[in-house]
From TrEMBL:
This is Histone-lysine N-methyltransferase SETMAR. Gene3D superfamilies: Ribonuclease H-like superfamily/Ribonuclease H (3.30.420.10). It comes from the Eukaryota. It comes from Araneus ventricosus (Orbweaver spider). GO terms for molecular function: nucleic acid binding.
């Protein structure tokens, strides 16, 4: 059923006459801000410990 839904979705998207940009999935070029954010978060949380799920 997944491929049927994917085909139907692709046809629906094509009906909008949008320019499609082909790119590989999970490309680092798509969201470079994520890398800066997660690097900052990693540094911020480095060395900190959690006592449990409540924190």
């Amino acid at each position: 059923m997944g491929s049927i839904v994917a085909r139907a979705t692709q046809k629906h998207i094509e009906s909008f006459v949008w320019e499609q940009m082909n790119h590989p999935p999970y490309s680092p070029d798509l969201a470079p801000s994520d890398f800066q954010l997660f690097l900052h978060l990693k540094r911020f949380l480095s060395g900190q410990r959690s006592e449990g799920d409540e924190e």
